[in-house]
Amino acid sequence: MFSQFALHERLLKAVAELKFVEPTPVQVAAIPLALQGRDLRVTAQTGSGKTAAFVLPILNRLMGPAKVRVDIRAVILLPTRELAQQTLKEVERFSQFTFIKAGLITGGEDFKVQAAMLRKVPDILIGTPGRLLEQLNAGNLDLKNVEVLVLDEADRMLDMGFSEDVTRLSQECAQREQTLLFSATTGGAGLREMIGKVLKDPEHLLINNVSQLAEGTRQQIVTADHNVHKEQILNWLLANETYQKAIVFTNTRAMADRIYGRLVAQEYKAFVLHGDKDQKDRKLAIDRLKQGGVKILVATDVAARGLDVDGLDLVVNFDMPRSGDDYVHRIGRTGRAGNEGLAISLICHGDWNLMSSIERYLKQTFERRVIKEVKGTYGGPKKVKASGKAVGVKKKKTDKDKKGDKKSVAKGPTKRKSVNRPKADTPALVSQDGMAPLKRRKPAVSE
Ligand code: AMP
């Protein structure tokens, strides 16, 4: 029950209005400590209810009678526009019975309109680091009296190259009394460094480790001979699975566009979302998906980050994500807040070792599914090591293999000795979305 928390009655009223009955584990763990003013470092998955875990304590702090606003009192930093927009919505839902006002600053929106909004001084400012810094540098933003700073999806902000921007913005909030840092993963050295810089004596709440990921989601693999065969399997799945809404993930923009084109040609109501799309397209895609006008979204990782769409119950990994963390984020799109979902990864021989290292990382074994209507010849490696990886059997290539390889891996599988190597058809250190340079991360390291 939410009444177990020392929250203002107007906030409890909003919670009841939203029909939240039981707090989620991250809310149970984080809300009381956040209400005490503690700095927190929280490791919790997307979909765990972490937004409410920081929004409710912030609102509780800011509760009070209506008065002229002179200071921005809380700042919430997030890696992507969509996530920032969703967080704004969540803040507005929880603050509906209060006088608290929130504002949004993200790239892709009019700079002057944002500056005008800042002149009205929102109590809570939500935004992405790059544009916030631009507004700060233009003299439109004063963060000197910020009381609470939240870094949400901090690991992803670092991956997207926002480390310096986040550091600078947190330095601007010099008088802050509380900092809350949320990440979906425990992160690496970059995150540890950030934690050391921005948090004071934090409590670390490790809510659910990745092995408990999206318990409501079944995770399956279907083996495929090559990309053309993957397309046939995808068609079969979209035509035969029962789902309200589906998301198809690819590793490249080109593949996303290709699949989108094929779906539209088959008269599916689909949309494509990747970094080549402008902000209007992105908004439209998400709105249509939410309203149900679009049933299938084809997306790359960064574009789909933080999507929270009701009824998204089928995720297809057309390409296997390059790391366990990316897998977690993709699958986090479904099975949210206790709903059921199905995640299916299409696995060619070149994907097998990556898939099995992700299984080890998650401490899970994906269900092997055979769809007899579209069954190919590849069914997984003949021999596997104890680790689950394929034993390197030297096999004479058939013409069919070569044809498949050309489509999926430019340099061919014999050169792909390591599963950590990025696929040859994508640049190694550039985000597929062209949004920001990606640091090369170690994919799928077992804990
Ligand atoms: P989040 O992890 O914050 O993105 O939340 C995922 C989804 O769960 C959002 O749609 C929230 O509105 C919803 N949610 C969060 N907390 C609860 C709760 N205690 N009961 C029901 N739904 C919730």
Automatic annotation (TrEMBL):
Ranges for domain Helicase ATP-binding: 31-204
CDD domains linked: DEADc, SF2_C_DEAD
Helicase C-terminal domain: residues covered: 232-377
Composition-biased stretches (Basic residues): 382-397, 438-447
Region entry Disordered, spans: 378-447
One annotated GO molecular function: ATP binding
Protein name: RNA helicase
Residue intervals passing through the bilayer: none
UniProt cross-references to SMART domains, sorted A to Z: DEXDc, HELICc
Keywords in alphabetical order: ATP-binding, Helicase, Hydrolase, Nucleotide-binding
Keyword check for Lipoprotein: no
Residue span of motif Q motif: 1-28
SUPFAM superfamilies: P-loop containing nucleoside triphosphate hydrolases
Biased composition (Basic and acidic residues): 398-408
An example Gene Ontology CC term for this record: cytosol
Similarity annotation: Belongs to the DEAD box helicase family.
Domain of life the protein comes from: Bacteria
Boundaries of every DEAD-box RNA helicase Q domain copy: 1-28
